[in-house]
Amino acid sequence: MAFDFQTLTFLAFAGVAAMAALAAISARNAVHAVLYLVLTFFSVACTWIIGGAEFLGVALVLVYVGAVMVLFLFVVMMLDMEKSPSQQGYVRYLPVGLLVAAVMLVQVLALIGVRSALEQPLVENAAVAAGQSNTHWLARALFTEFMLPFEVAAVILTVAVVAAVMLTLRRREGARHQNPAEQVRVRAADRVRLVKMQADVPLAATKQEEGAP
């Protein structure tokens, strides 16, 4: 079976996404795992763009790679989840970061080459066949034919958020936490105390009252 350059590039992107996902779940360093996950999302976005789903690919890059995963990376680096000894700065993360950046650069160049030499789509584009834009067709299909899977995914994500909050709110010794019920029941007398103190008199005024020269 012969493969053209477009198909080979698609398979290469899919292979990089699979390997990056495996590295993300097997990395012992939390920051490295987030960097590998960024590469996974970017590779999946490239496969979507080659497949004709440009809107999904761009949305994945803008929303997840450009916002969510960068926020995750900052939070993980600030929390320092691995409890490493002395802060060594970003230099220890530089090799993996450069590797991920280099792979993403190669993917961008390959994607530009594929799109410029594209003669026919890799798969039949349903939006083009329906005479609609990619975004219009996706919205109509998502909220009509696939409404039930969409709602199920929303429920699963909501349950995952609630479970994550419950897991992080576990009582741990030495960890600071808030108790909203106690904060609401607080009284001013418990937090503020008025103390009567003698006023300080300047030294010059004291000598003047005593008749000192």
Name the features.
68% helix; elongated; single chain; 10 helices; mainly alpha; Four Helix Bundle (Hemerythrin (Met), subunit A)
What is the CATH architecture annotation of the largest domain? Up-down Bundle
User: If you average the pLDDT, what whole number results?
Assistant: 76
CATH topology of the largest domain: Four Helix Bundle (Hemerythrin (Met), subunit A)
Main sheet characteristics: none
Q: Strand-and-helix sequence, N→C?
A: HHHHHHHHHH
The total count of strands amounts to 0
Number of domains: 2
Structural class: mainly alpha
Estimate percent helicity: 55-70%
CATH superfamily of the largest domain: NADH-ubiquinone/plastoquinone oxidoreductase chain 6, subunit NuoJ
Distance between the first and last residues' Cα: 113 Å
Task: Based on Cα principal axes, name the global outline.
Answer: elongated
The total count of helices amounts to 10
Radius of gyration: 30 Å
Assign the CATH class of the largest domain.
Mainly Alpha
As a percent range, the share of strand residues is under 5%
Catalogue the unreliable spans. none
